Every structure is written in C-alpha cells, then in structure tokens.
Amino acid sequence: MLQKPKGTYDIYGKRALMMNYLRSVFSSLIDKYNVSYFETPMFEASELFHRGVGETTDIVSKETYDFKDRGDRDMTLRPEGTAGIVRSFIENKLYADSLPLKAWYMGPMFRYERPQAGRYREFYQIGFECFGTYDSMMDAEVISIVYNFLNLLGLKGVKVNINTLGDKESRENYHKALTDYFKPYLNDLCDDCNRRFEKNPLRILDCKVDADKGFMKNAPKMTDYLNAESKEHFMKVQEYLNIMNIEYEINPNIVRGLDYYTHTVFEVVADIKDFGSQNVLAGGGRYNNLVENIGGPSVPGVGFAIGVERLLLALEYEGLDKVQANPVSVYIFGASTQEKKYLMSLANELRSNGFKVDIDYESKSFKNNFKRADKINASFVIIIGDEEVKTNVLTIKNNKTKEEYKVKHDEIIEFLSEKLGDLDEDK
RNA sequence: GCGGAAUUGGUGAAGGGGUUAACACGGUGGAUUGUGGUUCCAUUAUGCAUCGGUUCGAAUCCGAUAUUCCGCCCCA
User: CA-to-CA distance for A333 and A28, rounded, in angstroms?
Assistant: First the structure.
C-alpha cells in the first residue's frame, strides 16, 4: 500500500479542528498588536537560506530539501519562516513604508530529520516577525505575544528562558575567547564538541557529555564579553518583562541553532512529562543583521516561531484539546422524487439564511435517518413527506426534547432562529 | 547521520510453526415500510507492514526494505 512520506502526516478530523482553532485564536490575538498576515512561497531560491539562515547551521548544511526545478534553478523547501518574510520585506521594498512593520504567518516548514513524536519532516509553525526597531520594547513584546498566546490556550507551567548573544562585536569577541579557551582541551572534549568547536563553540557549554569536566567551570562567560550597549539592551528587556509580569529565567546556555540571532534569544518550554528534548514549544530572538545580509538595507528585526505539532501535543496532554465542530442545526430527510426536490430547495433556502444543514441523499428508512441525525448531533430534524409537499406545512422535531411542531414553510426561518437562539441560551 | 524497540481489521487488541485469526468497540443491514438513540440477530481480516527465504505447512522462524516510536545529534 502507498504510504505517506516519512515524517509527514495527514490533517483531518480532530487534528484539522485543532489546527483551525489554533489559527483562529492566534489570529484574533495577534490582531490586537496591529500585525499583518503574510504568506510567502513554500520554496525559495536555495541561496536565500544559505545566506539567511547560515551555511554553518545544521538546518541548512544537512537538513534542507533541495531540488533543481525544470529550469535548472536551485530551489529549497523552506526550513523555517523568517528568511522568506525577510526576502519579501526587501523585494517589496516594505522598508520604504513607515516602520516598524509587524508580520505573522502560519504554514508548513520542511526539514530532513529523523522523525520522533513532536518532530516531523513537514511541520507547521506559527511565526511572527517585526522589522525596524532596535528598541528592547519590541524584544519584550515578542516574548509577551508567545506567553499570552500559550496562556490564552490554557496551558499551565509555561516557562520563558532568555539569554543574550550581544551585538556583532560582543559576539565575535566571545566567540574568539571561547575558541582560545577550548583549543588546548580539544583532545579532552567529546567528538560532538570537536565539531561544535568549529561551527558553534557556544554549544560546547551546553554539552551533557563534557559538563562535569573541570575546565568547564572556568570557561569564559558571555556576560563578561558584552559591551555596554548590549548589556543595557538586555537589562531593559528584562525590565519590560517584569512590568508585564512575565515569568522568565535567564539561561546562559540558550544559543539557538540559527546563525542570524543577535542580542536577545529565548525559548518557551512546557514542563510536560515524557516530552524529553521535545519540550521547546517556541523559540526566537533578535536579528539585527539579517535583513542586510540578505541584501536589504540595515534594518533590525525580532521574531519567534511556535511549533504547532508540539503545541498540539502539549494541549492534548493537558486536556485542552476539546474542540468541537459547530453543531448541525437542521437535518432534513424525505424519500420520494417529489419529496427530494422539495427537500433540496428547502435545504438551499436554510443554508442561504445561515443555518448549518445536512440532508439525506439516499432515501433511507426513518430509523436510519434518525440515527444519522443523532450521529451528526443535529438540533432539529425536518421530515418531508407527501403531506408536507402538498400543504407547505413542515414537520419539525427538536432532536433533544422530541417535541414536534407544525410550521408553515414561510415561517420556518423565523421559527428556527428563535428556537436555536433559545438553545444557545440554555448552554 | 549513529544506536535501540515495534508493526495483526476502521479502532483497541489475543494468538509465539498445524489448517475457520479470539474478544471488544465501531460500521452496515434487519427485528420495527411515518418516528430513532436501549435490546436482540446477522454481517464486517482468503489475511497478520512489504518483498524474499527456511518448512509438508509461516501471522508465528530467518533476511532485506518501508514506516512508527525511543535515545543521541539537532531543532519547532
């Protein structure tokens, strides 16, 4: 049997409801921040990700889906959302409008990785980017959006971990200090750390294998290499977080896997049993040089991305995934040719007036139709027979109370509006 | 990319070489051709991820492949 590709999944049923739910909750929240919606292509010229995300990141060096199109162009399925938004920002010259510009998106990303629970090769992210302000208010606002969103969904025990990588100068100085420090110990470091030494020496600090080795304690600390401006920026971010009562913790080991970050970086974790290394629900940070690196003007940015699959797992685990489809207002059935014609026109009329209507297509038995009406949880059932067609008086039954009514066809809209209104109030 | 475990119907699963693949839920039809949700009856895998091998005989043993899950790496 044909199977879906490794690391992908189909969206239907409950998962589809949940995805729509997340989209609608997020979109109504983000609107409060005056943010515009973006949708950019799922594939871009490969060069965008090489220049944007960075050659040395694992994401670009070994996880992208690359292909040549029929015109022999090098293309890549987007492994993350920021690069595409930045490209769009530059290409459409949006920097010429008044800034800052705030953008959000939700869509699939692609990474060639070994799948696990909460990790897929095609996965969804909800993301946000803001261009055009260096002010640390924005760093804090970005964090607050994620924080508020997760709280709005009802998650408990959500924790924000923050760190700063400093500006370009601080970062380069620290990078140099780390490589100088670890160079004599290369033989003592694990294989992974030897690779990290080349690519991203910050990660050595986060190594579980080498954590207990003596020389680790005296390794240079980021805070000692921050210049005054970087320190001040980070301090202010914390002040704003305090003002908004956001619970956070400074974690100097957060480094992030994308090369473009400067200053603030953060992760939002859920403390959920059995989540293991998949407990990071969202991550993000500031990227002051990315727009310029991709070929735009020198415009700073801040953003985050939320992993939809992990968020869904967290919601499920916490029992916060009780979404239901809108109930069907009316189920209509009738058997003969005449009845079906009448039924069809009635259904069309009700749907045009805003009612959710399902009907019997198969001329099934009464019993079957009532079963079906229960199955789809219809509030009312309308039975079409000879009598109804002749007299234009409808037989309608409340499917919960079993009360039956005779209602003139002309008055059915009014009748249903009133009755369904009552049902809503009962809740 | 490395290491480990698993895979039986629509779903949860039992069976660990002997011929009809248990049980439960769900689905469909009927008892009940103008009034259902209970109950009862019938039916629902010529097939046990796929391909190949061993055997008189394979869901069961062996191999490869695929997928899922777990750990590492990395990340959302």
Answer: 38
ipTM: 0.82
Distance CA A363, CA A369 (A): 9
Which residues contact residue A369 at a Cβ distance below 8 angstroms, ignoring those fewer than 6 apart?
Answer: A331, A333, A360, A381
Under a CB-based contact definition with an 8 Å cutoff, are residues A104 and A37 in contact?
Answer: yes
Nucleotides of B under 7 A from a protein CB: 1-3, 27-30, 32-37, 49-50, 66-76
DSSP state of A365: -
Q: Please state whether beta strands A122-131 and A301-307 pair in parallel, antiparallel, or not at all (unpaired).
A: antiparallel
Q: Which domains does chain A have, with CATH numbers?
A: 13-167+227-317 (3.30.930.10), 330-426 (3.40.50.800)
Query: Model pTM?
Result: 0.88
Distance A9 CA to B14 C1' (A): 29
Q: In what order do the strands lie in the sheet with A357-359?
A: A357-359, A330-333, A380-383, A393-398, A404-408
Q: Using the 8-state DSSP alphabet, how is residue A292 labeled?
A: H
DSSP state of A11: -
| Sign of the torsion formed by the C-alpha atoms of A102, A108, A112 and A118 | positive
- Quote the CA–CA distance of A47 and A51 in Å, as a whole number: 6
**pLDDT tens per residue across span A114-158:** 888 888 999 999 999 999 999 999 999 999 999 999 999 999 888
Structure-derived torsion over alpha carbons of residues A33, A38, A43, A46, reported in degrees to the nearest 10 = -60
Which nucleotide is at minimal CA–C1' distance from A4? B67
Nucleotide nearest to A207 (CA to C1'): B73
Cα A199 to Cα A235: distance, rounded to the nearest angstrom: 29
Q: What is the pLDDT of residues A266-287, one digit of tens each?
A: 999 877 666 666 788 999 999 9
> Do A100 and A302 meet the contact criterion of CB atoms below 8 Å apart?
no
Structure tokens given for A166: 């400093």
Nearest nucleic acid nucleotide to A267, CA to C1' distance:
B76
Question: Which residue is it, tokens 């499920």?
Answer: A316
Gyration radius of chain A over CA positions: 28
**Residue segments in chain A with a per-residue pLDDT below the cut of 70:** 1, 208-213, 257, 272-277, 422-427
